[in-house]
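I would like you to sit down with the record closing this message with an eye to the fold:
=====
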Amino acid sequence: MIASAVVNQQLLEYLNTGILLLDVDLSVIYMNPAAEVLLQVSGRQGLGEHFYDLAWESEEDKTALQGSISTGYTFTKRETEVVLHNTQSITVDYSVSPIVHPESHTPCLLIEIQGRDRLMRISREEQIISKQETTRELVRGMAHEIKNPLGGIRGAAQLLSRALPDASLDEYTNIIIEEADRLRDLVDRLLGSHQLPKQEATNIHEVIERVCQLIEVDQLGDVKIIRDYDPSIPEFISDKSQLIQAILNLCRNAVQAMIEAGIENPTLSLRTRTKSQFTIGHQRHRLVAHISITDNGPGIPDNLKENLFYPMVSGRAEGTGLGLSIAQSLINQHEGIIEYESEAGRTQFSIFLPLKHS
């Protein structure tokens, strides 16, 4: 049975893939709802507009579209960044097929377009979570191997100190003991807290305000803190102290980076919002809290970006490289994740936390 025009129209309306039809001048003569959502424009506004007024890529690609009509050449592009009419950039896959309009019998282009940003973000999150789990297991194994001989070294130094005939030699055994203790503390920090999470009703804004108080007390310079809160975010079950530690680590890193870089008018912005039907790794959550921490510092060096959440990775000469690793681990324990975007003059860390109730 051949489907009617009404059925064909309804099928196009239900597709998740964006469908656009362009005339020979590359003006839009049809777009389905999926294309409206992806290009962030209503069908009424988009019809009659030049395609590249809605989604600009480059002059070269504009020429490729025009050439496709004249040559009948079909092509596909993957993970291409386009700039929308509202200046927002998105990443898409799209296929271009020259066809003949079924009614006017004139040449036109059929464009199938799919957004890639969400899939790329999910893939990136899965890699972050996988790396974090692998690193955690590696660190645990190494930590136990390190702590065992450290205990022996410390005990031997204590026995040696008692057997030495000259008390002035205690200085050397004390150095051994102190350094063994320092390494033990470092290993304990790598392993994280040994205490079970304390689950309680948590107001995320109380957590952030506590962090702001701590930052204002210990900051080394005059850093302006901007708050932009969504008061509608409900309470959720979490370990409040762990969240404070995670957010504090991110904020301290930002403040230290701005001060050490000598940034004029250093600013730290803390913003909260909610996102519905949000996927973290493999799991989809009905509602999550989005906490963004943004600074106007120098940005993260390119050589650190891929391994930023690994322990012992730091862009500061005096940094231990544990702050971000611990923060990611604490947020992961709440089934959340930390992501970041960074360029010179703007770095933003985003925490996504499922809003779970008791």
About this structure: The CA atoms of residues 80 and 104 lie 31 Å apart. The mean pLDDT is 83. The domain at 200-354 is CATH 3.30.565.10 (Heat Shock Protein 90).
